Amino acid sequence: MSWRPKAITISVLIAGALALGGVAVPLTNHPKFCASCHNITPSYDSWAASSHKEVTCVACHVRPGVEGWLHDKVWAGTRDVFIYTFGTPTDAHNLKASVDSDVCLGCHRNILRVSEVAPRDLPPPVRDVGLVMSHRKHMEAFRLQGRGDGCTSCHSGVVHERPIKGYPIVLPRGHVSADSKPWLPDHPDGSYLRERALKDCFRCHDGKTEHQGKLLDRKCETCHLPDKLKSFLSF
């Protein structure tokens, strides 16, 4: 075979691959494609009812850039397809997925500019309980720890859990008396998602954990305005 037929064959194969990719990539980016795996269906349903229902799965779970696309989309996606087809898929209540904080900040970077020291700066119901904390300081702390998932350390349920009082869930608020009923997740006992959902600020502010040589205490005044303590906190 001369070089010309070879070149034509290679060109046809490349063109076919590009055409296939041009069809396949947008198809696999659609949330309904993700939901075609039965163990993802609960996550799809919670996403469809969340404040992020206009944001696709890949927008949060695939980091931007070539490296993020190759690892999070191509590699992880192909692996999951093989596990779903030939192996034993992870139970829906034990799924583990990470969202890089840089992805969150791509839309929510303005949160780093909020002073968060006065009630007027806070959205309800955070304002009602006088919760004041610096997102910028927390993000810097997570960065120093090498944790790229700093945002989801506190906001893990903002998309895939039930809202509290019409407000997208951020943290379990069982220690706040403003809630008529303590919030409990739907996941079964012993599951990863239930354990994750029940973690709150005390996982770090436990009186034992240190940051830059300073002990993180768990006093109410560390996070809440003093004048709100008697009204809203149960202890």
UniProtKB/TrEMBL annotation:
InterPro entries: Cyt_c7-like, Multihaem_cyt_sf, Multiheme_Cytochr_ET, NapC/NirT_cyt_c_N, NapC/NirT_cytc_sf. Residues 8-90 form the NapC/NirT cytochrome c N-terminal domain. Coiled coil: none annotated. It holds the Pfam family Cytochrom_NNT. GO terms for cellular component: cell envelope. The keyword Ribonucleoprotein does not apply. The keyword Heme applies. Residues 132-224 form the Cytochrome c7-like domain. Keywords: Electron transport, Heme, Iron, Metal-binding, Signal, Transport. GO terms for molecular function: metal ion binding. It is found in: Cell envelope. PANTHER family: DISSIMILATORY SULFITE REDUCTASE SIRA. This is Putative Cytochrome c-type protein. It comes from Nitrospira japonica. The lineage of its organism: Bacteria, Pseudomonadati, Nitrospirota, Nitrospiria, Nitrospirales.
